[in-house]
Amino acid sequence: MEAEKRLVSPYDFLTDMGFELFEKNQSLDSYVEAMNPDYLEDMGTNREMLRANYHAIHKKPEVDEKVKSILIKGGVNKDGEKEGFDILLKPGEIVSIVGPTGSGKSRLLADIEWLAQGDTPTGRHILINGVQPDEDKRYSMDEKLISQLSQNMNFVMDANVEEFIRMHAHSRNINESDLLIEKVMQWANDLAGEPFTKETPLTALSGGQSRALMIVDVAFLCQSPIVLIDEIENAGIDRRQAMALLVSTEKIILIATHDPVLALMANRRLVIKNGAIDQVIEGDEHEKRVLGDLEKMAEKMLSVRNALRMGNKITLKV
Ligand SMILES: Nc1ncnc2c1ncn2[C@@H]1O[C@H](COP(=O)(O)OP(=O)(O)O)[C@@H](O)[C@H]1O
Ligand SMILES: [Mg+2]
């Protein structure tokens, strides 16, 4: 693996092909530009071919390694004291991040997004599949490892829902079949509760509908194996279904939240204090029962809200 990755210098590349070069350490372009096209033709090649062959050697393998784990290696808290935890995350897992405002929840997400290598205020290191990610992975925009579910979903685009879905599928090299559109619509409608159609203009979506669409977008129209969610407004969506959907896509999900339902739904929660992970808590049976109660209350709230909106009198038992 390492040997394959080693860079071949332009000098070695060209001399291996039989070219006689007089100066070492030039760029490929400067060698190639200086060569007489007739001479190149005699050698059975041309400038374009040489460039293409050289770049082909250095191209990354097409099939990128699958993300099997992320390791957050502890750094230091705001006082420079050592963080007590290394956290290993696996696909299909939801981890919630809780703690008071200013404690460092967003910083932890940013460390992951940036694939920190000791170069952020926390000094954390993020390892993918146990190793430090390549530099090109840190900075590449096209093959995105990580996607953010953002707070800000003001659709300014003059497009309808179907056009939006097709555009996203297309830009991420996903086959934009009618079946895919149907699947996205079905899920987005389920999550939002209030129905909308493919023809609905984006600007006409309610907050809940657009949030539902964004979640389904991350689940089905986005290849990145890691999803970061930072305190999204989640009113108007079915949180349990949304989380179940994201988990079913075998992504690693980190969610910073003050919402008790979301916090308790996670497999584990990280408690952040003074800039560092202070506790790791696994939900027990008691917490699960509390979560069940909270969800029932949320359901009641929603049904009363809908009844009020419809102009109905409230008949719910208390
Ligand atoms: N370990 C740390 N060392 C130094 N600064 C930190 C550390 N953790 C967080 N910070 C800084 O503290 C501030 C608040 O953190 P932030 O992540 O925004 O908090 P939260 O999202 O929990 O409200 C930010 O400026 C962040 O960069
Ligand atoms: Mg924050």
Task: Provide a brief overview of the structure.
Helix content is 41%, strand content 14%.
Query: Which structural class should the secondary elements be placed in?
Result: alpha/beta
Q: Helix and strand string, N-terminal first?
A: HHHHHEEEHEHEHHHEHEHEEH
Counting DSSP E segments of at least 2 residues, the number of strands comes to 9
CATH homologous superfamily (4th level) name of the largest domain: P-loop containing nucleotide triphosphate hydrolases
Beta-strand percentage?
A: 5-15%
Overall number of structural domains? 2
**Physical arrangement of strands within the biggest beta sheet:** 5-6-7-3-8-9
> Any idea of the CATH class of the largest domain?
Alpha Beta
Mean pLDDT, rounded to whole units?
Answer: 87
Cα-atom Rg, whole angstroms?
A: 26 Å
- Shape summary: flat
Q: Biggest β-sheet: count, sense, barrel?
A: 6 strands, mixed
Q: Provide the low-confidence segments as ranges.
A: 1-5
Number of helices: 13
How far is the N terminus from the C terminus? 65 Å
Ligands bound to this protein structure? adenosine-5'-diphosphate, magnesium ion
CATH topology of the largest domain: Rossmann fold
